[in-house]
């Protein structure tokens, strides 16, 4: 019988009228048809029959599947209970393969609890057992879990090697459908969290095709499409990415709110970049309601609406929480750099840029390296070190071009244009701004198109009646220079500097140097 297509008789039968084998088939069918609760109910009944018949091997595997069914639904307490039952039954068959499947569950549970050494030891035991018993499913799944653990320990290269090996087993067709889907989702989610855009792109289309052919209505097609949405968003295919993200979220509704939240958050980011603030806010708040951290998207939305202080406060709170995935934390840090620079808090921004640099070095993912290079260039530019800012900004542009991430690349080219302008090279500045503007126009990034147009049409900004010399003084104040340092750099007296600062405070209606610095960054004068 094809377990993905239950017979009409089985579909109508009450669970207590079915045999243990029929219940297992019913549970598998419900899983593939996207009915996780119904699948759990059928497998629980099968477990009871196996237990009552003293069939320890089948009871172990039924409890194992129930552990993962609840674990995947983010129901940790119930999952823990089923894991204990796995252990109890496995003790009765210590030399059989089923006891080694329990070791795999132990690895995932220890990883969830942050006990990485225990997790790795359990995963290795499961992998060795898979090879010993020639159980390809167990070996591949254990390789995948090992990869995840090693990456969490920041041994990224070794972790990706394990995941690639598991993926080859999946592609070769030697695994069951259940294990194949598991491996695909594990690799894609890990690549997404690492920011490994190239590897994710390589595997995503393959995984989507498989899941649509074999996944039926299980969560595999929705998960794979959700990962593909992330790639499409990075590649600039925003319309398709947003539609697919919301569609995938609907598909994943039976499998947990946290999966719906991912689709909502991705849609919010696309809307924010397009200038749809109301739509973006609704998506971010929906994601938050469903348990997903809405940052940095919501904070960047607040920044775009002129609420820089609120944005900075939200990001500080988010950064102080759990580290999260490398790319997730990297995006928080990159946004924090941007917001703190707008507020004129250069040293605070520099600290986040330094952490982002360390994160990128540990992961070695090109996408994170691009974010780190952009952040470093932004800080150096704010510090007035134009020559120092140019190399990391150029590196970031090259990385984003290699990864085909047009929005990030265009944003970095805007910074390059600003750096060229500071260096007195207006022609190069206009070339960079024109190139960035064309990309933003093609993407539909309306706020960025408008910003580039403003930068291009007003090479020298003199708001509130500030003179050229007052602008020079204000820029140096924003960079943290003292009156003596400003006087030396501009070849004027300290008395003249003090007079200029007094005039600046009066014209822009501020009462402190920090407020003047904030004004300078908000008006993009530095």
Summarize the structure in words.
The chain has 526 residues and is mostly helical. Among the domains are: 176-293, Tetratricopeptide repeat domain (Serine Threonine Protein Phosphatase 5, Tetratricopeptide repeat, Alpha Horseshoe); 326-462, Serine Threonine Protein Phosphatase 5, Tetratricopeptide repeat, CATH 1.25.40.10; 464-522, Arc Repressor Mutant, subunit A. It has helices at 8-12, 20-32, 36-52, 56-72, 76-90, 97-112, 116-132, 136-152, 156-171, 177-194, 197-214, 219-234, 238-251, 257-274, 277-289, 297-304, 308-319, 326-342, 346-363, 366-382, 386-403, 406-422, 426-443, 446-457, 468-478, 483-490, 494-508, 513-522. Helix 8 (136-152) packs parallel to helix 10 (177-194). The protein is elongated, with a radius of gyration of 28 Å. The N and C termini lie far apart (70 Å).
Task: Compile the SSE list and pairings.
Elements: H1 8-12, H2 20-32, H3 36-52, H4 56-72, H5 76-90, H6 97-112, H7 116-132, H8 136-152, H9 156-171, H10 177-194, H11 197-214, H12 219-234, H13 238-251, H14 257-274, H15 277-289, H16 297-304, H17 308-319, H18 326-342, H19 346-363, H20 366-382, H21 386-403, H22 406-422, H23 426-443, H24 446-457, H25 468-478, H26 483-490, H27 494-508, H28 513-522
Helix pairs in contact: 2-3, 3-4, 4-5, 4-6, 5-6, 6-7, 6-8, 7-8, 8-9, 8-10, 9-10, 10-11, 10-12, 11-12, 12-13, 12-14, 13-14, 14-15, 14-16, 16-17, 17-18, 18-19, 18-20, 19-20, 20-21, 20-22, 21-22, 22-23, 23-24, 25-27, 25-28, 26-27
Throw out a few tags for this protein:
mainly alpha, Serine Threonine Protein Phosphatase 5, Tetratricopeptide repeat, Arc Repressor Mutant, subunit A, 28 helices, single chain, disordered N terminus, 526 residues
